[in-house]
Amino acid sequence: MTLQEINKAYDRIVGSLDSQELKNAFDSLQVLIAGSREYSFQDRLNELQDTYKYMLRYRIEGVKDPMQEQIYNNLQVSAYELTDSVKQKALAVESPLSYYSRRRSLKTQPAFTYKQLHSQLILEYENKKHKESDAFNIIIFNKIWVSSFLKKEEAEEIRNMLQDQTLPFTTGCQIVSSLMLGLQEMFDKEKILLLFDAANHPDEEIRARAFISILITLYTYRKRTALYPQIADRLAALAETPGFTKIIRTIILRFILTRETEKITHKINNEIIPEMMKFSPNLNHKFNLKDLTPQDITNEEMNPEWENFFSDNNLGKKIEEFGELHQEGADIMHSTFIHLKNFPFFRELSNWLLPFTIEHSSFDDPFTSENEIEKQTLNTMTQVAAMCSSDKYSLFFSMMQLPKEARMMMMNQFDSQTADMIQQNKEKLIDRHGKLNTIIGQYIQDLYRFFKLYPGHLDFTDIFTMPLDFHNLTSLRPYISDQESLTAIAEYYLRKNYFTDALTIFSQLAETDQDNPILFQKIGYCKQMERDLQGALNSYLHADLLNSESKWVIRRIAGCYRSLKQPEEALKYYRRYEAMNPDNLSVQISIGHCYLELKDYNEALKCFFKVDYLDNKSHKAWRPIAWCSFLTGKLDQARNYYKKILNNQPNTQDLLNAGHTEWALQNIKGALSFYQQAVQMENGNFLKFQEQFSQDVTDLLIAGIEESEVALMLDQLRYKMDGEI
To answer: What percentage of the chain reaches a pLDDT higher than 90?
Structure first.
């Protein structure tokens, strides 16, 4: 079997097991064993099949076995584990994936037990040998990451290392990250149980990473984890810890926020930066920078003219939006550091998930004891934007590439007052979100960079391409299904315009809260944004029954009816809205359009004239007045309005309608002239013009145009376009 065939067979077996189709799974597993020639697993497969057949025979004979459910669950667990073992053995020698390459390279190196690595790491750390400590941390990371099923004694040795508070916190963090990555490749009960241990660690950085890793693992193996009672027990125990639900909720919201990262990057690169490039030449002129004195520059009060310039400028609005995203915790730094991941440091996989520390050996050589102040100053600079660890390393390495003189000049400008300000900003951000929440956000950003930017990232399943709807996990639902949590998640989806996700939760909430009008309003809105107009209408009508005073709902109902081509029903609700808010001209326009669709042109005209009278600046009513005038035979009135429209940025339809009016007035030359301009506005595309023209033929006949003249007019236009008449 080829590597691709092995992976396809594996996916097929896991799919069968997820669907509880054990017979199909066993048959496919037999094919995988034979195809990969891994016959050492055949006896184990035969044993599983025999056990399953015996269980089924007892069932057929009507013998009730109180152990049947447990036997069945154990069979599924054993089948999953056997499938994983066969796959790993089949891919071990030839697979080019990072996971298997690293396994092969580790086999060529001296074999250390976890206990030996633990002891050696303590020794190196106590002697302050940074380079050696970092090297052992990498070995530990890789050994855990690529390990097969952990034995009990191995798990215990890792647990001892994890709980050893004499070691730097970075070791515990790396253990957690390696467990998570290893679980992404192959499920191992001992590894996830170690994550539960880490979730109770006193260090918040380790705890946060463990919580995130547990959720990712539960999501990845949402079918399989239910077969392990120990996992459910540990999850229930963890749920008893203070703030559990809040932490889970924070992680869910943070993962939702990562969906915005690519949008933010696109906006920065394609909107904000180009806008700034256009904007910069005007700075001197607008701000009169040449005339500023030192007193002006240091004045606490900003020039009001500057504020107006920024507020009126499109760039100012984008920067303001950018600032709001930053305050919310969005990943605004991704685009800045995306091209600063080529340093040798980032060639080592484990470094992508390493917490930032200035004690890392990479910083030992450039910063000797003589310039420790410079090192500390640079460390302070990394706090400026609450960057994730990966970006902090990027910033440090970028600074280190500067010539020493340039670096020192920058350091001299970085006084204690600036450092204090940065520290205050950092503390404000932590106060706003909470320390643990800040750590959660930054680690998720580190994960995002790893799965998107690590040179070998294609060897890993990108978790950020998945929905990651943790709140829908059966295992988590008991702890996150309270109204406060679900409402917070749904509102966040709604605010970020993820309407399908929001709708799922709002609908779930509505099952137990049928009398909440706001809930049904939001369900209706989500359905409307997803183009389910009939579903939206039904929800809005339900909301209207619960609260008939909501103008917003009444207008939405009217809009849905109109979109569903039911103008008579739409009119009823627009009239209801009008009674509550008689001065809303937009609704008057909508009422006029309803009459227009009902072919009551005189009533439509009354509405449009009212709008034109009360709002003589926007000219919103000109087009419908002109068209209704045409349809009611008031052709001179229509002509007058089309003249005004054509002097005010006309579109193709305006020229077309003006042509219709001239034709109805028997001004054939005038009609041809307008039609020709309409074709030209469509870049000479006569077919496109003809499509629009054909839609108006019925109205032309009502206006008194003979049907036989339609074809003649089009031919006249064709000749005129060719310059032959």
So the answer is: 70
| 668's tokens | 């054939």
pTM of the entire predicted model: 0.83
The tens digit of pLDDT for each residue in 589-648 reads 999 999 999 999 999 999 999 998 888 787 889 999 999 999 999 999 999 999 999 998
Report d(CA 247, CA 235) in Å as an integer: 13
Report the Cα 370 to chain-centroid distance in Å: 46
CA distances for 43 relative to 32, 151, 157, 218, 257, angstroms: 14, 21, 31, 31, 49
631, 702 contact by CB (below 8 A) = yes
Q: How confident is the model at residue 328 (pLDDT cuts 50, 70, 90)?
A: confident
Residues in the chain: 725
Helix (H, G, I), strand (E, B) or coil at 614: helix
User: What is the three-state SS of 660-722?
Assistant: HHHHHCCCHHHHHHHHHHHHHHCCCCHHHHHHHHHHCHHHHHHCCCCHHHHHHHHHHHHHHHC
Q: Are 700 and 660 in contact (CB under 8 A)?
A: yes
CA torsion angle 20 26 29 30 (round to 10): -170
Q: How far from chain centre, in Å, is Cα 293?
A: 47
Alpha-carbon gap, residue 562 to 572, rounded angstroms = 11
Distance CA 386, CA 375 (A): 18
- Report the distance separating Cα 361 and Cα 380, nearest Å: 18
Whole-number Cα distances in Å, 94 to 1, 89, 103, 392: 12, 10, 11, 37
- Per the prediction, the chain carries an average pLDDT of 87
Structure tokens at 263: 């949008």
Contact yes or no for 133/124 (Cβ under 8 A): yes
Residues 6+ apart with CB under 8 A from 306: 286, 287
Q: What CA–CA distance (Å, rounded) separates 90 from 68? A: 33
Residue pair 66/75 in contact by the 8 Å Cβ criterion: no
In terms of C-beta density within 10 A (0-12 exposed, 13-18 middle, 19 or more buried), how is residue 454 classed?
A: buried
pLDDT of 383 > 70? The answer is no
